[in-house]
């Protein structure tokens, strides 16, 4: 198949809570983003993103791609093969956006897109867009090597949440980003307000443009020798990181829940890599989305309504580092029990 008939794939990455879904929701509203297939992958089995990505245009496609970071080759190739089948059956797709989990090491994803023969028959990697959270970026880069790799392989760098930091903090982050990926000028983006054109230019991703370290990572042989085995263990990217979700069938009281979350954040915020939830709250007909990212809590968002086919109940996903599940689960259970009897 000629190169110009290949469907371009843009990889959208960035650490947990950086604002990937927010950006995607904005972009998918633009008319030129019609006929976009969105592949979302989530950490382990606990994702909520497929609920948080707002209604897609009629002709857009949303596919779950499994946990890309772990079983990358198989799951990603299989998701793209399913998409190729739908295209062969008449589904019009002009581009693919692949939103990775925040914990994804981007390297095996890029290797699959650049090297898997079945994938290359239909698709071509067009670019890697990496979002960095202005509020948490430096701290994350200091602690999470996958976040550094996400920045290093980017050919577009966006700094989200510029509204949450002062100029000094922003300059420190920009200096750090220059050190990791000197070729790219980061662009601040507030609440995902970026133009599709700026993001999804259809230039082909070329490993030759990337720095020495990135070329080394992308090199198949080097990868097989260094550390590939680290990435097979599902749900354990780092010995201390784990994810789980809790659900509640009866409506929760917002005030009490918020107080408990505030306490947890004050004492263990550093360990709360990501908390996101869809809540069924007492006295509220519509679902409420909550987002925590390390020490930062974003304002809760009232969603349009409960998605069709989804049971009406609260679900909260926690991705924690060095904090046992029981601390969260027992604390929350005690609070729910107390508020039920109050
Ligand atoms: N203040 C502020 N908040 C933002 C901005 N961009 C995103 N957010 C908020 O950050 C939180 C996390 O955003 P998401 O888009 O869910 O982040 P994500 O990268 O998709 O998260 P994961 O998929 O869990 O890794 C949400 O509450 C967003 O509203 C911004 O520019 N400014």
UniProtKB/TrEMBL annotation:
It catalyses: GTP + H2O = GDP + phosphate + H(+). The keyword Nucleotide-binding applies. Residues 241-336 form the CobW C-terminal domain. The keyword Amino-acid biosynthesis does not apply. Transmembrane segments: none annotated. Keywords: Chaperone, Hydrolase, Nucleotide-binding. Belongs to the SIMIBI class G3E GTPase family. ZNG1 subfamily. Zinc chaperone that directly transfers zinc cofactor to target proteins, thereby activating them. Zinc is transferred from the CXCC motif in the GTPase domain to the zinc binding site in target proteins in a process requiring GTP hydrolysis. This is GTP-binding protein. It comes from Roseomonas haemaphysalidis.
């Amino acid at each position: 198949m000629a190169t110009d008939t290949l469907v371009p794939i843009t990889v959208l990455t960035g650490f947990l809570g950086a604002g990937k879904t927010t950006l995607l929701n904005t972009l998918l509203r633009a008319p030129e983003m019609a006929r976009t297939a969105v592949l979302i992958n989530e950490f382990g089995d606990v994702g909520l993103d497929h609920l948080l990505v707002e209604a897609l245009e009629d002709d857009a496609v949303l596919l779950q791609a499994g946990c890309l970071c772990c079983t990358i080759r198989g799951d990603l190739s299989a998701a793209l093969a399913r998409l190729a089948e739908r295209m062969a059956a008449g589904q019009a797709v002009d581009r693919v956006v692949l939103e990775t989990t925040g914990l994804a090491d981007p390297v095996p994803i890029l290797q699959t897109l650049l090297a898997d023969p079945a994938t290359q028959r239909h698709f071509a990697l067009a670019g890697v867009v990496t979002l960095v959270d202005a509020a948490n970026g430096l701290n994350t880069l200091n602690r999470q090597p996958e976040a550094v790799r996400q920045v290093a392989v980017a050919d577009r760098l966006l700094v989200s949440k510029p509204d949450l930091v002062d100029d000094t903090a922003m300059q420190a982050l920009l200096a750090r980003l220059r050190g990791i990926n000197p070729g790219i000028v980061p662009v601040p983006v507030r609440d995902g307000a970026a133009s599709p054109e700026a993001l999804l230019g259809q230039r082909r991703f070329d490993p030759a443009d990337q720095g020495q370290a990135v070329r080394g990572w992308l090199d198949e042989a080097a990868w097989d020798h260094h550390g590939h085995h680290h990435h097979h263990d599902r749900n354990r990217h780092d010995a201390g990181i784990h994810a789980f979700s809790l659900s509640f069938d009866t409506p929760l009281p917002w005030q009490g829940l918020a107080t408990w979350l505030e306490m947890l954040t004050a004492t263990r915020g550093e360990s709360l890599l990501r908390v996101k939830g869809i809540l069924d709250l007492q006295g509220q007909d519509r679902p409420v989305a909550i987002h925590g990212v390390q020490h930062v809590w974003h304002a809760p968002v009232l969603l349009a309504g409960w998605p069709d086919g989804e049971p009406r109940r609260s679900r909260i996903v926690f991705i924690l580092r060095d904090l046992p599940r029981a601390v969260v689960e027992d604390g929350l259970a005690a609070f729910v029990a107390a508020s039920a009897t109050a």
